[in-house]
């Protein structure tokens, strides 16, 4: 009995000594001062922040046990985690998104200024050479540049038909001027234009110019549309990261970013692999964009190659006035032969009773333009050339490949956001060694130990952006081959129109909504299997 009492006394003494040791030593080690400083630095009130650790049964996200966090603190840090995640995605994707915005603006401004410069040059030179005769007929040339600009800016313009109309109108006007002693009715002039292909009054200039202008403008318009689509997709995907942050993601972010606070370790960074797991889980849908994004970038680079070389858009647009002038000279040289053939085919016109002008038409058309040397060609106010601009854009495009799959890694860059030392880092519950890394993309998150993601429910907006990229990639590939694809949405049907480079073959498929699925292969969208994807597909046409 005595021995038993002595044992109880000894145990009691040990308990008291243990509590005294914790109060004297461990209490200082578990102070919350560092947490209070870090919490205050975030701009939060210290009113309810404990000075020393408290029991943590109330915690719902962070490990329960002794903690420096109250329930209110955990809620505040939970919301802060979402805000900081949005900021991280915003900052990490900013340069890439800004690149598409700035390069789209530069290319668009450069191209439109190139057109304006060419139009001003033609107007100036033709006024000097042809004088009043040109001024009286200048609307033909003004309409040409207006239609070229309208095509480039997305208007429903058939380049080949528009250029054919230009040469037909020019032929009619010149035929009247060269035969001003006759009166021509509208029906007669329509008959004259029918001899364009047979007589080739302007020589080979219309055919060559049509081929060059068509290919160059298709490439330029599709390229600038591609830059616009890349910009819009990047902005929308970044926005998804703000709006559609899953609760499981926010919970995982809180554990990674702020549970160290609750454990009294506010300066401890997450382990690199742990950070990757959390970010790959939170950005799983974005990573699924990567495959189509890379195909889009590759197609953009192909079309960029078309913008360079001897037949680039700059080389086509700048000397367009010289080429048209050469065509006019050819028409003047062949005027007697052309007139004779037309009179033979369309009939002898009635005399106008006015007679030809005292000043011979040959005198009017006697002026020829000199060819510019490379240094004399007009330059844009941007002070750059097309080659330099395209080289810069191509470099930036290459840098954006695999952007979405690399985004988690970029956010978790070692030393910046995650800990360099894999032995001394936060691994979701303590200072310890990092864990294994999950794969990229939505389906691989089934093995993610940090973020519980429903892999059966992909993000709808991300799927829409994948579809937008797929449609644009198809347009880019066709543009590379010299074909123009125009989608027009109407209330009853969608027109899918292919315009080959030389106009030898034209194909128009009027796709009624009920037949769209049957013909989907035509546009290379074989993956549209569900009604939801079909509706997404229709939506894309309104945006591109």
TrEMBL record:
Residues 1-25 form the signal peptide. Its main location: membrane. It is found in: Cell membrane. It holds the Pfam family Glypican. One of its GO terms (cellular component) is side of membrane. Keywords: Cell membrane, Glycoprotein, GPI-anchor, Heparan sulfate, Lipoprotein, Membrane, Proteoglycan, Signal. GO terms for biological process: cell migration; regulation of protein localization to membrane; regulation of signal transduction. It is a lipid-anchor; GPI-anchor. PROSITE patterns: GLYPICAN (PS01207). PANTHER family: GLYPICAN, GLYPICAN-6. Cell surface proteoglycan. Belongs to the glypican family. This is Glypican 6a. It comes from Neogobius melanostomus (round goby).
């Amino acid at each position: 009995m005595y021995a038993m009492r002595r044992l109880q006394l000894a145990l009691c003494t040990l308990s008291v000594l243990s509590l005294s040791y914790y109060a004297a030593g461990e209490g200082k080690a578990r102070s919350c001062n560092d947490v209070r400083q870090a919490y205050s630095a975030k701009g939060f009130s210290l009113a309810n922040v404990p000075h020393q650790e408290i029991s943590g049964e109330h915690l719902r996200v962070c490990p329960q046990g002794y903690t420096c966090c109250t329930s209110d603190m955990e809620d505040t840090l939970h919301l802060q985690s979402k805000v900081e995640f949005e900021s991280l995605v915003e900052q990490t994707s900013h340069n890439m998104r800004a690149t598409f915005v700035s390069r789209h603006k530069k290319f668009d401004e450069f191209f439109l200024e190139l057109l304006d410069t060419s139009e001003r040059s033609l107007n100036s030179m033709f006024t000097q050479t042809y004088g009043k005769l040109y001024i009286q007929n200048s609307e033909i040339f003004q309409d040409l540049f207006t239609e070229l600009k309208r095509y480039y800016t997305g208007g429903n313009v058939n380049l080949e038909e528009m250029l054919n109309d230009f040469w037909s109108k020019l032929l009619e006007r010149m035929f009247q001027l060269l035969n001003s002693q006759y009166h021509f009715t509208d029906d007669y002039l329509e008959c004259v234009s029918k001899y364009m292909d047979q007589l080739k009054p302007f020589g080979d200039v219309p055919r060559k110019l049509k081929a060059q202008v068509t290919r160059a403008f298709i490439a330029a318009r599709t390229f600038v549309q591609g830059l616009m689509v890349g910009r819009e997709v990047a902005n929308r995907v970044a926005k998804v990261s703000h709006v559609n942050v899953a609760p499981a993601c926010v919970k995982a972010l809180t554990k990674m970013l702020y549970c160290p606070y609750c454990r009294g370790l506010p300066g401890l960074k997450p382990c690199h692999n742990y950070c990757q797991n959390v970010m790959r889980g939170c950005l799983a849908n974005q990573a699924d964009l990567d495959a189509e994004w890379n195909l889009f970038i590759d197609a953009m680079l192909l079309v960029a190659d078309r913008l360079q070389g001897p037949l680039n858009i700059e080389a086509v647009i700048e000397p367009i006035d010289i080429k048209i002038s050469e065509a006019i000279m050819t028409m003047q040289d062949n005027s007697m032969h052309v007139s004779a053939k037309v009179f033979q085919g369309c009939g002898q016109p009635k005399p106008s009773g006015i007679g030809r002008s005292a000043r011979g038409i040959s005198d009017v058309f006697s002026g020829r333009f000199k060819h510019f040397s490379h240094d004399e060609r007009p330059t844009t106010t941007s002070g750059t050339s097309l080659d330099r601009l395209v080289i810069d854009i191509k470099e930036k495009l290459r840098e954006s490949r695999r952007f979405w799959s690399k985004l988690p890694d970029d956010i978790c860059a070692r030393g910046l956001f995650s800990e360099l030392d894999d032995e001394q880092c936060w691994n979701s519950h303590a200072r310890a060694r990092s864990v294994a890394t999950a794969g990229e993309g939505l389906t691989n998150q089934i093995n993610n130990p940090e973020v519980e993601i429903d892999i059966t429910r992909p993000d709808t907006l991300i799927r829409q952006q994948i579809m937008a990229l797929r449609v644009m990639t198809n347009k880019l590939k066709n543009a590379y081959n010299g074909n123009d694809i125009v989608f027009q949405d109407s209330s009853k049907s969608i027109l899918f129109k292919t315009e080959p480079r030389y106009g030898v073959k034209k194909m128009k498929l009027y796709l009624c909504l009920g037949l769209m699925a049957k013909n989907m292969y035509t546009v290379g969208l074989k993956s549209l299997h569900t009604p939801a994807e079909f509706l997404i597909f229709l939506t894309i046409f309104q945006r591109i």
